[in-house]
Amino acid sequence: MRLGNLTAVRPRRSLIESEVQKLLTGCLIAWPPVDLRQIVHYLGLKYTEVTDTPDGAEPIIFTSYVTGYAEVFVNANRPEPAQRYSVAHQLGHYILHAKSNVLEGIVELKQNWHSTEDAPPFSRDVYEAEADIFAVKLLIPQLLLKHLPKTSRNLNAIVDDFGVPLLAVIPAYNDLLKKIRK
User: What CATH number does domain 2-181 carry, 1.10.730.10, 1.10.10.2910, 2.160.20.10, 1.10.1040.10?
Assistant: First the structure.
């Protein structure tokens, strides 16, 4: 799709699915809920819960450019499903975007800017969409979802079994329904 001087590309779904599968396989995760602490440690990161933050503060991954050491800081004041989704979203950024220019491969530029804040809004949308897709696919892997008993495939049971917010379940559930109907 062309928009003025920029060419936008859709989220890289096959790359996302491949990266999620590598994590699940590497961590030997075979049943919900997906253990995010195990994944964080597998990636060589440290997981730290913080309680002295505002209730709405999102998790962040901080990397020291001096030492190269990275740590996930999680707001323990938020509900657990929201914490899990936000950590998975940040892991998506870390895996998909941290080692390259945030916009590399997402938007081809014919003009320069110095930060993502200067970038057109739709480019940040693709960047965030990739992290959202990653979070849903990591927290609710299709392979695990397919193997649930049919009685556990209602939305509320999936929310409980996978430990995620309801809004995260809907895209995964829709994907499952498409695959079942094929």
Answer: 1.10.10.2910
